[in-house]
Amino acid sequence: MDNLVSLFLEILEEKRGRPGNDFLTYLIQTPGMTEAEYRDSIVTLFMAGHDTTAGALSSLIFYFASFPSYQTRARDEGLSILGPDSHPNIPDFEKMPFLKACIRESMCINSPSTATISRVSAETLHIGGYALPAGIPIVLNIHAVLHNSQTWKDPDAFNPERFISANSTDDGKWMPCA
């Protein structure tokens, strides 16, 4: 773990010399943080990213195994864009709407996160007939949002097609899946 932390600190130093439009630059520009806080934030970000990515990929593999026709369709789409010996990149991924829809759908049904990090409201909020006073921690239940039948038709059914239509992402309801 010490080697990994050392690598993160090297990346942090490199980022100080070459700032960009990314989380690490934002972190470095946060006033009043100690070196230990920088280190801990980077380690937390890495571990959270590793854990959620592994969970998301495991879910996608499960759904592809459960629905071979979707797996075949996503594979065929990938091969048509990449060919048999190519190395995928982000611009290629943007040309694969069905694969992207499968990823979003698997993340909606089986989100790698079940709740948001708590936030503290600066003012009283009124939600669903309830008053939430200022200054209290608020946590969003992501699972409840993603499995809400008022938002999603058949929210527990694996249906990547819901993300294929022209209006599927226009209203932002897919954002908790991302």
UniProtKB/TrEMBL annotation:
Coiled coil: none annotated. Pfam families: p450. The keyword Membrane applies. Its main location: membrane. Its cofactor is heme. Pathway: Secondary metabolite biosynthesis; terpenoid biosynthesis. It is found in: Membrane. Keywords: Heme, Iron, Membrane, Metal-binding, Monooxygenase, Oxidoreductase, Transmembrane, Transmembrane helix. One of its GO terms (cellular component) is membrane. GO terms for molecular function: heme binding; iron ion binding; monooxygenase activity; oxidoreductase activity, acting on paired donors, with incorporation or reduction of molecular oxygen. Belongs to the cytochrome P450 family. PANTHER family: CYTOCHROME P450, CYTOCHROME P450 12A4, MITOCHONDRIAL-RELATED. This is Cytochrome P450. The lineage of its organism: Eukaryota, Fungi, Dikarya, Basidiomycota, Agaricomycotina.
